[in-house]
Structures are given as C-alpha cells and as structure tokens.
Amino acid sequence: MDSQTKPVLHGYFRSSCSWRVRIAFALKGIEYDQVPVNLIKDGGQQLTGQYKEINPMQQVPAVIIDGITLSQSLAIIQYIEETRPGRRLLPTDPKKRAQVRMISDVIASGIQPVQNLYVLQKIGAEKVPWAQHFIIRGFEALEPLLKQTAGKYCVGDEISMADICLVPQVYNAERFKVDVSQFPTIKRLNQTLMEIEAFKGSHPSCQPDTPFDLRS
Amino acid sequence: MDSQTKPVLHGYFRSSCSWRVRIAFALKGIEYDQVPVNLIKDGGQQLTGQYKEINPMQQVPAVIIDGITLSQSLAIIQYIEETRPGRRLLPTDPKKRAQVRMISDVIASGIQPVQNLYVLQKIGAEKVPWAQHFIIRGFEALEPLLKQTAGKYCVGDEISMADICLVPQVYNAERFKVDVSQFPTIKRLNQTLMEIEAFKGSHPSCQPDTPFDLRS
Asked: Are residues B27 and B167 in contact, defined by beta-carbon separation less than 8 angstroms?
C-alpha cells in the first residue's frame, strides 16, 4: 500500500508555504520526511532541472504522497484532510468551511504571492517597501474579516486551515518589519496559536535545514 | 429560507476571478443577480467605503449567498459545490480532487495575483512586460502539469474547478498579448471549453456591465 510509505516534503525552513504544510502534518500527527530545497544557495535549488520535474512552478512546497506529487500548499492540506483521520482541518458546517477557505485564500492568493521570493527578485532594490505595502494592505482586510469570524481561533473555536495560513504570514510580516500590533485580532490569534505544539515544533527556527545562526 | 433568495454577485465583466464564479453558477444552473463594480470608473468603485463593507480586500468578486458574504472565488465555488446539487465541480476521487485544487491554485495563487489590477497599478509603466513575464512563467509550469492530468478537460474527462480557472486565465493572457499557441495543451483545453455554453454565456464580452464597444 503506497499510503504506508511516509510522505516526503520538499520544502525550505523559511518558506511560509512550506511551514503551512508542516503545521498540517503536525496537527494530523502524520510522520513525514523532509528534503530541503535551499531557495538561496547555488542561485536557488528550486531552479534545477531535477526539482522542476517535481514542481514545474519551481517553488516549495511539493509533497510526494500516496504515489502522486502535489504542489500548492492548500491543495496538499486539503488532500491530507480528505484522506487522513485525526483532528479536522476544516469545520463540518459549510458556511464555516467557506469562511475558512476565504481567509486562507486572502492570505494564499491575496497576500503571500505578491511578496513571494520570485516576485521580490523581480522588484529588486525596492523589495522591502513593496512587501510591506502588500502585507499591510492584506492585513487591513484580514483584520475586519477575522473580527467577524474568529472565536478562540480564526474561525470559531476550532483550529483550521485558516490558522495554518495565518501564523506563517505573520512570521513573514515580522521579517519585513511590519508592526503587527496595529492589527489586534491578528496579533491575538497568532499569540494563541504559537502556544500550540504543532505550530511551535514546525517553526522555521527549528527545521533540519535551519542554519545554526538562525536556530532557537 | 435564505437559500431561496437568489445569490448576488458583485463583480466586473472583465475580472477573471468574477468570470470564474459566473462559470460555476452556470455549470450548476444557479440563477443569480449581478451588481457591477466598475474597477476603473471613478478611480475604482471597489475602493468605496460601501464596497469595503462587502469585501475588505476591495476586490471582486464577492457573493452574498444564504445570508453570508463570501469573497475569494475558489472559496465561493467550493461553497456552491458543497451546498448545491447538480453537476459536480470537483471529482469524487481524492487524488483527482487534489490535482484539481493544485491546478486551480497554480492559477489562483501562482499567476493571477501577480498580474492583478492592484499590483499592475503599483508597477506603472512597465505593467505589460511584467504581466507577460509572470503569465508566461506560470503557463510554462501549467503546460507540463496539464499534460499529466488532462483528458478531455484539465483533470480527466470531467469539467472541474481547474477548467473554471483555466479559461479566464487564458483570456487574461490574450489581453496581455501572450502567444498561447506556445502551450499546446492549454490552447487545446481552452478551445474545447469555449465550446460549452456555461463558458460562452459567462464571457466578459456579454455581461450586463460590458461596454457596448466591447460586446460581441
């Protein structure tokens, strides 16, 4: 049975989309192997012909699971959800499921892609103000949405895919020196979530490929 | 029952993400009302305080349905899928569902956001080569992925959310003068899909807010 083989995550410690998948695996209690793809070293290992075979978009993450190769973190997370037992990553109520997907996509389509490495490389010298602009613009929308949907977590009182997207995006915001305290709901949710082992243990500061000077 | 009220789509004739939702409604046979949000006129009607209440991201589409307001086209499409009968928009097989979501997200997170209006407005004079660069980069990845997954349509022989994303992205590519014939699988799928009434009738050239000189 191919489902008895451990999934293999091709990722990078600091990639927020890789971190999403690590959180999902941890919440579900799924063991997996990691293959680091260093996005900086050698001009970017995601650009090799070998990696392009795995993910033609030349991005991380990509997961080999059950005999197929999947890229795009939300597709991976929802595949895990639909094929693995354990803690639910999306609620059962259709309206709440839709809100989880909406918040996930505000981050995964509305914010992260515009401050992604390959976009910033194209922007060049102005990359920090560019990233700050789009993260702040996104958080200004996310804050009122989350005010409506949040309970203890992003949507109600159950951890979901929306939380899996939020925490790595806050990490990106902090990397780009965005003052997250302007967004009290986002800040509060992030703090609550960062107490949870699945979020802590999957953090960029403690992955197999985290450089020693960035470890904590 | 709020589900007996027609959904209301706030959209723009030429927005590829609005078109995705129009295709989904058409495939499901769902009647809906359209409220045009002109992204150009008056400096952009999506920027008004009134529209910001509907979608804080100040983007289209947003749909009012069953008493809730949803933005993000893939969240809307999957909500329709999970609450409405009729033609399936995602396959039942989990691996194929994952491939549909992967291809949808390559477009919805990997291509469209980077050539979105609000990004191009920030780019300024260089916007056409910028959009071409990221569309071509995305199609270079999409082509080999679709070669693996496609049958008659993007994933196998059933129309899915992946097709709903593909056709409007090809329309965007053509607007930016990208030569789609470089990508034979994409071109073939688009031609096949454009024969189908749900794709034709929802086309930007024939919406209530399409200007007369752009009608066909």
From this structure: no
A195 in the same domain as A130: yes
Q: Is B47 on the interface with A (CB under 8 A)?
A: no
Burial class (CB in 10 A: 0-12, 13-18, 19+), A153: buried
A45 and A114 assigned to the same domain = no
* Of B48, B76, B50, residue with least CA distance to B62: B76
CATH number at residue A176: 1.20.1050.10
Nearest-CA distance B34 → chain A (Å): 20
Distance CA A142, CA A16 (A): 17
- Tell whether A52 and A110 lie within a shared domain: no
Contacts of B154 in chain A (CB under 8 A): none
Same domain, B100 and B73: no
Q: In what order do the strands lie in the sheet with B68-71?
A: B33-36, B8-11, B62-65, B68-71
Half-sphere exposure of B86 (CA within 13 A, CB side): 15
For B138, phi and psi rounded to 5 degrees? -70, -45
Domain housing B184: 94-199
B79 and B144 together in one domain: no
What DSSP designation does B156 have? B
Q: Does the pLDDT value for residue B138 go beyond 80?
A: yes
List the one residue out of A37, A24, A104 whose CA is nearest residue A65. Answer: A24
- What part of B 138-177 touches A (C-beta under 8 Å)? 138, 140-145
What is the ipTM metric for this complex?
0.97
Q: How many domains does chain B have?
A: 2
Question: Which one of B58, B79, B98 has the shortest CB-CB distance to A75?
Answer: B98
CA-closest candidate to residue A142, choices A123, A129, A155: A155
Co-location of A158 and A180 in the same domain:
yes
Residue range A93-120, pLDDT digits in tens: 999 999 999 999 999 999 999 999 989 9
Q: Is there a domain that residue B49 lies in?
A: yes
In this prediction, residue B1 has a pLDDT band, given cuts at 50, 70 and 90, of very low
